[in-house]
From TrEMBL:
It is a multi-pass membrane protein. The chain crosses the membrane at residues 12-34, 46-66, 78-101, 107-128, 135-154, 166-186, 207-224, 244-262, 274-292, 298-319, 331-355, 361-384. One of its GO terms (molecular function) is transmembrane transporter activity. Its main location: membrane. It comes from the Bacteria. This is Sugar transporter. It is found in: Cell membrane. It comes from Phascolarctobacterium succinatutens. CDD domains: MFS_NepI_like. GO terms for cellular component: plasma membrane.
Amino acid sequence: MENKITTREWLPLIGMTVSAFIFNTSEFMPIGLLTDIAEDFRMTEAQAGMLITIYAYVVMLMSLPLMIAASRYPLRKLLLATISLFAVSHVASAFATGFWTLLLSRIGVAFAHSIFWSVASPIAVRLVKGPFKALAMSMIVTGTAIAIIVGLPLGRIIGLYVGWRMAFMCIAVLAFIVLAYMFFVFPKLEKSEPFTLSQLPVMLKNPVLIGLYMMSFLLPTGYYTAYSYIEPYLKQIAMMDDAWITITLVIFGAAGLLGSAAFSKWYDKCRYHFFRITVLGVAVVLMLLYPVSINHYLLVLLCAIWGIFVTAFNVVGQAELLRTTTMSTSAVAMSIYSGIYNLGIGSGSYLGGLICTHASIAYIGFGGGAIVLLSFIYCAFFLIPAMRRQQEKAEK
């Protein structure tokens, strides 16, 4: 067996990494464009926020059924069809004549999102030889991480200079390029053994997995209560101009690299403490969002700390899920995790919209922080004890 990855393995793996980047960038992009979209369609930011809420709910509802359906088709055809749907839906977004046609096009993107993340990890590990499967998985995570870091600010920068429609068109063009690339380099892979619902009950008897699912709902709900409306918040409450907002969002995203680095350095050494600190950190940051809005520099610093803690939590969640599942169930478990996480995104966006409509956008941090504080209580007193018991049982 060769001790390195061949060019024929590298080429499709790079394509999968870029695909992971554009799929997640597309998900985050509307957050940075919310004000422009709302102004274009003469609606409030809370109403425009339906783009985020409904997108997330569609992904939540369709992740598991589409994963089950997708397991019955050849992976090459499935992947190319998924990227095609993604690209065409973005063209439709760019040419949307009204808010509802834009929303319909985003539902098409959400369907593609659901299918892609159901097969991305299984495809990646099948592209390479045994010793390099972990590397393949890490490259998919890298594509996702880069999207989280630059997705929102990139969308905003493009939107500021050429408009929100061209931001969506740029994603479409990139997707068509990836589609052409993958058509030539992606190998034929046999379809995997179909997953059936009868396998779910055994998997869901794992208390740690259930706890992680609960966290994947609670924390994103609180986080996105504020994050979904961060762009209009910075403009209306912090009184930042466009340049300051863009800088803040770029720093927010880039700070996530420090969260990832902190995970690599400290997580294995103090696993439980690290988990608790990341969750509590998000809660504290959200609670401080309004008090520090009077000073631009303090607010930028707070957003950087926010980015560190949120990224660290996202990596911890995935790491713990892979730790508590087997190779045969990890793809299914991740699909469900993604669906529940998107339920949290949609719920948070909806709650944030309610706060904006019925109270004030100034209070999104308090509302989100209260929910994340609840997730910290659950993490500290229920999930981590379950993780300890599972580890003690495994060591016997």
